[in-house]
Amino acid sequence: MFALIDGNNFYVSCERAFNPRLAQRGVVVLSNNDGCVISRSNEAKVHVKMGQPYYQLQEQLAAHSITALSANFSLYGDMSARMMRLASALGPSQEIYSIDECFIGGLEGIAQLTTRARAIRQRIERCLSIPCCIGIAPTKTLAKLCNHIAKEAERRQGGYSPAWAQVCNWQEISPSQQIALLQHTPVAAIWGIGRRMGPQLAKAGCTTAYDLAQLPSALARSMGGVVLERTARELQGISCLTLDNAPAAKQQIACTRSFGQAVHTLPPLLEAVSEFASRAAEKARVADVLAAQVHVFAYTSPFRQGLPWHGAMTVPLRQPSNDARSLVQAATHAARSFFQAGHPLSKAGVILLGLQPSHQPRTSDLFADADIPSTSTHLMQAVDAINARYGKQTIHLASCGLPGQDSTGWRMKQAMRSPLYTMRYEDLPVAQA
Predict the structure, then answer these.
(1) 414 assigned to some structural domain
(2) Start and end of every UmuC domain (predicted)?
């Protein structure tokens, strides 16, 4: 038995948790640089489509009193970690699938599972003010479907049975109702099918989830390989997908950003690349890995007039490292090497490659830079500890610029970003009598 716990309209729910004025009104959250809509409240879904560009919506949002907010990913990540800790109490094993979703496994034999799931849901909403829905089923694919049913039953009256709202347990649905639900669900809406496979299946006469569940295994494999065969079996109630309790080791670590405004000169590019490399180094230390190569890129907007331009370079390190100084040094060297004046750059990024465990034995380097001593591990640990206690970038490399200041204009547009309520003392909400 599996359960899928999913935070409803997660980014919007995180904003509402700290701003009661946003309750019961239309709210949308925008992507980096306030580009397009990436999260909508139920009230906003009537008027706004996912992915719509913000600049096309401003009059429409104002007409319907819909509030637009800049993305606050640091806040969302912290709230996600808190939600996942509470969700883990539902069962013995957990797979965090995305920032707002997780699978819980090992639920076989748990008495009154639906009641327990409702208690976990209430605890999450009580502690974090984040509403969520839970789907429970003998397979992960059916758990996904049940989660969808739980959301729709709560959101829309007259669709699904109100008994399935918020928490939907497949085993508590009669066989005839299970068939009706599968027949009511378009095949393209099934987890793992997607927009490409859906039309192909429809052309072959497989238009609903029930049609897919009835496909013989050999035919399903011939149409979509082993992935489609597994999906068909999962819809039949045969579990083919297990929990990923130990995520695969990362092959790379990336930090990329679009610029708030076009970058034409080298200094702002170096500052941006320095910050990206520092953040990537921090991620590497959290993952306890070292990077053997640093890849840096920058390019112009694909929508600008004229020929697009792209610059990139990969710098091998003498010794694998997660020291911010080594990685920033390599990244800025790459940026200096490929930069060409006259191109308005819209985005850049740093990608760490050749990752390996920090504890892996390494040979000593006779040619290591004297500026990066062997005590770098202790230094980085001290920097991380100070930044964790007093706030990010309390200690940082000078080449990253001054925190909170954007003298060169490359930083993202976040004019409507909410405070970091859970991460900075100065941003703590203040109750007024």
Answers:
(1) no
(2) 2-194
Quote the domain boundaries for residue 108.
1-173
Could you tell me how far CA 391 lies from the centroid of its own chain? 22
- Whether 22 is in a domain gets the answer yes
- Is the CB of residue 261 less than 8 Å from the CB of residue 311? no
CB 299 within 8 A of CB 311: yes
Is the C-alpha dihedral spanning 244, 245, 246, 247 positive or negative?
Answer: positive
Cα–Cα–Cα angle for 419, 420, 422, rounded to 5 degrees: 130
Can you tell me the distance from the alpha carbon of 337 to that of 10, in angstroms, rounded to the nearest whole number? 42
Residues 323-341: tens digit of each pLDDT: 999 999 999 999 999 999 9
Examine the domain organization and report whether 212 and 264 are in the same domain: no
Please give the DSSP secondary-structure letter assigned to residue 97: E
* Domain annotation covers residue 5: yes
pTM: 0.81
Domain boundary among 229, 247, 265: 247
Average pLDDT over residues 419-424: 82
